[in-house]
Amino acid sequence: MLDIAKTADRKRLSVRGVTHSYGGQNAVSDVSFDVEAGEIVALLGPSGCGKSTVLRAIAGLIHPKAGNIILGDDDLANVSARARGIGMVFQNYALFPHLTVAENIAYPLACLKVPRAERRARVDEMLSLVRLQGYGNRLPRELSGGQQQRVAVARAIAGRPSLLLLDEPFGALDRALRFDLQVELLHLQKTLGITTLIVTHDQEEAQSLAGRLVLMNKGNIEQTDTPMAVYDRPKTLFVNTFIGQANLLQGTVVGFDAVSTLIGLANEKSLRLPRRLSFTVGSRVTITFRPEEVRLSTQPMENALPVDVTVSVPLGPSLVHDLVLEDGTGLRSSEVRGPSTAIPEPGAQLFAEIDTMRCHAFPGEPENSQ
Ligand SMILES: Nc1ncnc2c1ncn2[C@@H]1O[C@H](COP(=O)(O)OP(=O)(O)OP(=O)(O)O)[C@@H](O)[C@H]1O
């Protein structure tokens, strides 16, 4: 077992009601979530939703207007950024260009007044952890982008932080390299067990790294859950459309029986969802379903809507169809492609059978806004 793994201090991070504004504009409002000791959580959301603001507040780079940040047993309100024991990696967190790789990694250790001999041993340990043995005497400019980011990770964990914060750490790297570094980071984090919060707007990165996702939109948290739960059981329309792809149909609740709800759609079409929704008759609703929950058929049947095929595109193992309903609404369906899967011609008239078991319903747009 590595030395650092024995001594790393696992702590739980608790963010409680954090609110912050720049000027008069609220950037984040009442944000609360926990990262359990040793857990990786991803903070995910579109540009400008407030992710970096939350991270900066945790790091102590800004003082939130309200709320508490607790690491282990300590409220960090009056703890300086330096004294928080947090390691950080940013997308453009440049290494010191005039210091060697070893000196860069040793820098935080010198700040922590770690004795020289121990510093040297720790640098060697870090270099081997990020698989850069033999690179200690190079300057940052003599490394590739991916190697530089690995040095930044080594520097962030060298001081044995109890929390690691990563802000779009691989954002500047190409896709293949990103993936390699994600796998490495995951391995490293599992070895060290450091409580880790990663900020990203890349949902694949979030899902491949994190045990739980915190989904932010416009300064608020919309859902905190495992990647699977967020995909399968989105709590809001935003989450449903932000994670994965979703088809949207606007409809009206027409009626119920004990076990189903009838939804009226444009052009006198309808869908019967196999459960009783908690909307009143006449409510406008947005019905959503994933492309893989639509099956194309040549036969009319219940819950199958007539569509024209715009285009069908084979994408590796799948076949993706762009479709259009009679009222002009676009739909997408996807199916696993086998050797005998027929590819429909553009303009083909088919029926899109929707798996109503998997549909979600959210409050819809009012009729006059259409
Ligand atoms: N220093 C600042 N001064 C004024 N407004 C700011 C400042 N920093 C951020 N903001 C605003 O606060 C909001 C949240 O910004 P933040 O950087 O936290 O978002 P983000 O989710 O990290 O975005 P991105 O993914 O683009 O980095 C945005 O509307 C942004 O314009």
TrEMBL record:
Domain ABC transporter intervals: 13-243
GO terms, molecular function: ATP binding
Stored SUPFAM superfamilies: MOP-like, P-loop containing nucleoside triphosphate hydrolases
PROSITE patterns: ABC_TRANSPORTER_1, ABC_TRANSPORTER_2
Leader sequence segment: none
A Pfam family this chain is assigned to: TOBE_2
PANTHER family registered for this protein in UniProt: SPERMIDINE/PUTRESCINE IMPORT ATP-BINDING PROTEIN POTA, SPERMIDINE_PUTRESCINE IMPORT ATP-BINDING PROTEIN POTA
Protein name, entry field: Spermidine/putrescine transport system ATP-binding protein
Originating organism: Pararhizobium capsulatum DSM 1112
